[in-house]
């Protein structure tokens, strides 16, 4: 409910700013009918650009080199976790198969020895499950941390970007979640992406020098 109220208030504020901005450039006050007509004319005039813009987040994430490097870091973490789990799973499967073979061939010296081996395999299975859960939680935390780092970086850079732009509001848009329709002139995704990449530099995966040695977080602070 709080999120819905925030969206409603944000939309109302945005509309109010747009109307005030347009009214500021209309004719002298005192003629409400004429001013209303001027407002409609200004709003429909393709040469008039209001102090708002939006960024397509999907496109930004695909083309922002810092986001690419963070994604590569996440992929490496995921691959490392998967490799560790695969190795653990192979050990478990090998132990279970060996236990089954010995059991079928009556290779255990005693029933007690067979039960001990069975308990050992059950512990291995439990350790595998605990390892999978732990690595999943660690990956989720790392993903959350990098997402926050990316979000904070973009917000800080947008303040710098907007110093000579004068936008009153810059929206984020993913697909059509936030903005159902907007004139293309308000889409500043390409301009923002170029600005961010200029500040960050080339992505590690596409850099010809020092590949694999650049730390995304450290580099983005420059």
Automatic annotation (TrEMBL):
Signal peptide: none annotated. InterPro entries: Chaperone_Skp (IPR005632), Skp_dom_sf (IPR024930). One of its GO terms (cellular component) is cytosol. The keyword Signal applies. It holds the Pfam family OmpH. Residues 82-134 form a coiled coil. The chain crosses the membrane at residues 6-26. One of its GO terms (biological process) is protein stabilization. Residues 203-222 have a biased composition (Polar residues). Keywords: Coiled coil, Membrane, Signal, Transmembrane, Transmembrane helix. The keyword Lyase does not apply. Residues 198-222 are annotated as: Disordered. PANTHER family: CHAPERONE PROTEIN SKP (PTHR35089:SF1). Belongs to the Skp family. This is Chaperone protein Skp. The lineage of its organism: unclassified sequences, metagenomes, ecological metagenomes.
């Amino acid at each position: 409910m709080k999120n819905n109220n925030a969206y409603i208030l944000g939309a109302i504020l945005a509309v109010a700013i747009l109307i005030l901005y347009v009214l500021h450039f209309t004719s002298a006050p005192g003629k409400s009918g004429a001013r209303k007509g001027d407002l409609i004319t200004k709003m429909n005039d393709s040469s008039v650009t209001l102090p708002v813009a939006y960024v397509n987040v999907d496109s930004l994430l695909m083309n922002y080199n810092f986001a690419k490097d963070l994604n590569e870091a996440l992929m490496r973490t995921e691959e490392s976790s998967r490799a560790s789990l695969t190795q653990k799973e192979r050990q478990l499967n090998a132990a279970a198969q060996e236990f089954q073979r010995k059991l079928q061939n009556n290779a255990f010296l005693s029933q007690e020895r067979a039960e001990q081996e069975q308990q050992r395999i059950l512990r291995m299975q439990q350790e595998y499950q605990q390892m999978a859960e732990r690595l999943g939680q660690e990956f989720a935390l790392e993903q959350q941390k990098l997402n926050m780092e990316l979000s904070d970086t973009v917000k800080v850079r947008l303040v710098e970007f907007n110093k000579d732009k004068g936008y009153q509001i810059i929206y984020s848009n993913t697909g059509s979640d936030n903005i159902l329709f907007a004139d293309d002139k308000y889409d500043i995704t390409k301009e923002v992406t170029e600005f961010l990449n200029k500040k960050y530099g080339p992505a590690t995966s596409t850099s010809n020098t020092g590949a694999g040695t650049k730390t995304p977080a450290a580099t983005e602070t420059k």
